[in-house]
What we know:
Blueprint: H1 5-12, E1 18-19, H2 21-24, E2 39-40, H3 48-59, H4 72-86, H5 91-97, H6 102-126, H7 132-151, E3 160-163, E4 167-170, E5 177-178, E6 184-187, E7 193-194, E8 201-202, E9 226-231, E10 237-238, E11 250-251, E12 254-259, E13 265-268, E14 277-278, E15 282-287, E16 293-296, E17 311-312, E18 316-321, E19 327-329, E20 339-340, E21 344-349, E22 355-358, E23 367-368, E24 371-376, E25 382-385, E26 396-397, E27 408-413, E28 419-421, E29 427-429, E30 433-436, E31 440-444
Helix pairs in contact: 4-6, 6-7
Amino acid sequence: MPRSLLVSNLAALGFLMAFTGAACGSALPAHADRPPLQTAGTVPTGDAMSTLEALTARQAGHEVPFQSTATPADLLAAANELLDRTGARDADALASLATLDASTAAALGRVFTAFLAFDAATRAYVDGAGIDAVFAARLQLLDATLAFGQAFQSATPPLVLDAAPAFTLDLSGVDSTYLADAAVSIDVGGDDHYLNRAGGGGTYANTNCPVLEIQLPRQAGRLLPTGFLADLEGNDDYVSGYDCGTNGGGLQGAGFLYDAAGNDHYQAGQGGVNGGGYLGGIGFLHDESGDDVFEATPEHSTYGYGANGAGSLGGYGMLVDNGGHDAYLAGQEGANGGGYALGVGSLVDAWGNDRYQAGALGTNGAAYLGNGLLWDGGGDDSYVVTQEWGNGNGHLETLLGSVGKEFSACLYDADGHDWYDDLQGNQGWDLTVNPKGLNGSQFDDAVGSLGTCPNQA
Length: 457
């Protein structure tokens, strides 16, 4: 049986990440000169900084090993299992996969097999197991996806296949519009429109995603607690506006969205969206390049509840953007790498002139009874909190007295001419406020001093 929210949130205390100065006080692109990243707790591979380290190493020419002996037969076996898990029996889809050239089929077999492991770890987590296995499986799925992206040249035949809710494939690079949800979606190119939940994961979903209503009806296409989407090229729109596990977000499950290239637009509502996690859910969104917009703008409220790489109510959110001039726009109670109410959030942007705007209570790397990290590697940026009751821009607030030392919050900007305004009297250019709240920090490193956020260990 799925665990209760109380058990989920209390268990999250054992896994709250704490970011040291090494994680907050270094800058890209001098990867070789950076100190090793360190995180306290039991999930050292689960945060966005560790992911960026692996990606940066790969770009520098250092291979990230991926152990696999996948074959075309493995693709068919994994696809068949995925069809079984979702109840979407589709003999025509399997027959179409069997026509793919061996190289493409083997590379896809790696991805599908890695997804099944990711889904199995997520199911175990939903039923009460630890979170470490979910993070480890997600990193293997990321590596399999990167390997597929590096190896893929063209597919024979150039297949376009809709086997939702199990999987969708576009191996031709045409412009596509996606309406139905699928557990696995892979698109190799084109300017695509995703009007579905786009790699979101979760067992439950509805329109408004209220805090207290957790026994929600299952929705068609969300038969698994796990979702994955990889788009390798094009200027894409992920603009369904949906709440509850959308655009790589997670609600009582795990979502993962990877976009390799293009100027993209992510627009969702609240409750584990755009790489956010809510109600114990796990979200991950990685955008490799381009000038992107990440919006979490619910239609009828100002809440975020785990939006843009934030975690809320025991959720874990991670968003990595590896380059471009980006905008991150969201509401309150867990947004833009913030952590709210036992939530853990991390937003890492490698470089670019970026805009971070959100409401109060665990936003822009701040935390309220949680852990938050916003790390920006360079560029002329702005960090603005739009609600006067505060707890934004790296501020840590807790009601647990000395126990609050177990929580952390960090906004770190490595370089550039930057503007800060938290509506709490901390307004100005290139502004450091340290400590900020009980154990948080807003640190601007414009002079290159490589200062650090407070040691959270």
